Amino acid sequence: MAYVLYFLVFFVVIILFSSFVTVKQGTIGVVTVFGKYRRQLRPGLSFKIPLIEVIHSRISIQNRSVELSFQAVTQDQANVYFKAMLLYSVLDQGEETIKNVAFKFVDASNLMQALIRTIEGSIRAYVATQKQANVLAQRNEIVEHVKEQIDKVLESWGYHLQDLQLNDITFDDEIMRSMSRVVASHNLKAAAENEGQALLITKTKGAEADGNAIKIAAAAEREAAQLRGQGIALFRAEVAHGMTKAAQEMEQANLDISVILFTMWTESIKQFAENSEGNVIFLDGSTEGMNKTMKEMMAMQMQRKDP
């Protein structure tokens, strides 16, 4: 009798402890009775009927991610290789949603297979309508198309597509090389155009600078010529003024004005000798030459005095 009593107490303790279930945060427990859905358990400590209620599954309501790698063919028969990241989660914590998540698929691997194939099929269908040159520029359009196509399907499974990122889009090696050559040629063309513009600007500015330099030099030369002319005119005016004053003084002293001419003649010979710097100057320095020169100068002076 004592053994039977111990056995009953042990059995009751086991049943009592098995009646309490702990559900982790971010998880919902699905309870079935004889294989049929009964209720769901929220995170924390819960009670279930021993030997009758069974925890069928524990469903995570947290976000989950999966990486995809697949191939598609464009309208112009180019192979496109995609690498994508899929982020999804349970739609909500409603009873019908939890039932769909728990019982739509046999296990998680079947769900993942269906989810991946559905997304790949949607992307392939869209890429098949596009040309190879347009695929790279339509990354956002592809994502929007996939979300629009599979959102309703995922809702019927109890899931929601949070995000789809196309991390890498590549083509066959030959296409990638040709695209690289096209980009390189465009860059060379742009570089040549920029160099041509820079050269044109440089030459234009150089020509403008040369023209301005010529203008400045011409203006300076014109101003210098004017100053030289003014200096020569002033010199001649001073010479004439001095000669006039000297002639007046000679007349007041009753002296012959030809003495001035003689003095100018000798001063000219002296100036030629001092500043010739090795140059040969032919000058008739004889008395006859001087008399001839004096007569010519006197004749010119007499002509100026005649009315």
UniProtKB/TrEMBL annotation:
Its main location: membrane. The chain crosses the membrane at residues 6-34. It holds the Pfam family Band_7. It is a single-pass membrane protein. GO terms for cellular component: membrane. InterPro entries: Band7/mec-2_domain, Band_7, Band_7/SPFH_dom_sf. GO terms for molecular function: peptidase activity. Gene3D superfamilies: Band 7 domain (3.30.479.30). Coiled coil: none annotated. PANTHER family: STOMATIN-LIKE PROTEIN 2, MITOCHONDRIAL. This is Protease. It comes from Pedobacter antarcticus 4BY.
